[in-house]
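As agreed, record minuted below.
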Amino acid sequence: MAIYRLKNPIQNYPWGSTTDIPKLLGAGNPDHEPVAELWLGAHLKAPSTVVKDQGEQSLLDLIEAEPVTVLGADTVERFGPRLPFLLKVLAAEKALALQVHPTRDQAKDGFERESALGVQPDAPNRNYPDRNPKPELVCALEPFDCLAGFRRIVEIATDLRSLHLITIGKAVERFVRSQRTDGLRRLFESIMLMGNERKLMFIEEVVGKAAAAKGDRYRWIVELNRQYPGDIGVVSPLFLSLMHLSPGQAVYLAPGTVHAYLRGVAMELMSNSDNVVRGGLSIRHVDIPEFIKILRYNKNPIEPVKPRELTGGAEVYEVPASDFRLYRIRLGRGVKYVSPRKRAVEILICTRGRAVLRAGAGKDDFVVRHGDSFLVPANSPAYTIEGEGMLFKATV
């Protein structure tokens, strides 16, 4: 089977950038709509389109017609006749939801529970539209700010004590005395579940203290309150690790890891799932009790993922997720990327520069520019990429 160019759907969420994804694609945006995400994959809601000589075809339909040819026999055996991952380009002008994703067992239980209650799969209040877990890997294309996992308990305690918060003074004292994970859990849950009047008083106090304090953490509290006034997620930088990812740095978010993307442009690779449980910072459905139920309290801070260098300008981001693997391919003078002969299905996207992709006996050569993307079926012949620029590769 040949390698195919892809056309990919765009998601216009309110938090998106009006410029970053259009710039990547070399496209205009005359209406200045927020362009939040570019989806590359076979998601049921918005699949990519395969460009063939005889016309165009949904990637979903191509996989349904030839699952083993496209995905590979091993992939079909492990995951069934479905693409197990979804690759995205994410461009955030505003912060997006404080959220967690379920494990496989939690997703299965949640899906069956909501289905039994008659909640429609596409209902806006549905947390679990499918049975799949949703680990994620986000890799910065440009400087990217996010919250990911809990900070060290001693750091949280030090900052809370220094703010002298009246609204939760006694609770902070108990936490500072214990400085244990169960104490952090009690304090964080009590804040998330505050009644509306007390919550607004607490947020007002925190924002006021943050405005007078120094440091990125406090500036983000003020900024989040500007974006989502009165939302309990505004205080999350007090508890969560604030990460500033440089281009090429990545962070892995296992199921249960609390996170929020704040600003920037990144590649995001995840299991092909829509299961999101939001705790705040969103105009979409928020379910704080379920958010608390799924949430895990990491003992050590989340660390950036360092890629391992391979040959031909390639690097791999190795993470404990069976559904996906992300590679970065950096091309330059004298650097030629040669694909493995045996491999599963792949999706490629060029994010910078210009290259030539050659497959088979040379009849399937492609000129590759930034924004171009390709489906490489599992049974396609080995291919090479040469030029100047950068590509990302998603596979199983």
